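Team,

Forwarding the record for the chain on the shared tracking sheet. I've put the sequence and predicted structure together so nobody has to dig through attachments.
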Amino acid sequence: MRDLSPPVEGSSVVKKWGFVAMHSAVAATFIFLLQRFALNASLESSLLWALTFAVCAAGLAYKQANR
């Protein structure tokens, strides 16, 4: 007889949020370094763009992880 309990998904949840966090951190780091050193933007502007890109990257990674 088939077991009716759902499978344990603890590790997949951790992997999903780890993927989202990693994607967000990489995007923020990339855009910060690009803005600050390649485009010579101010620190405040670079941090604001890094935060914006991190939020957008986290949203995209979350959507992809739920597919």
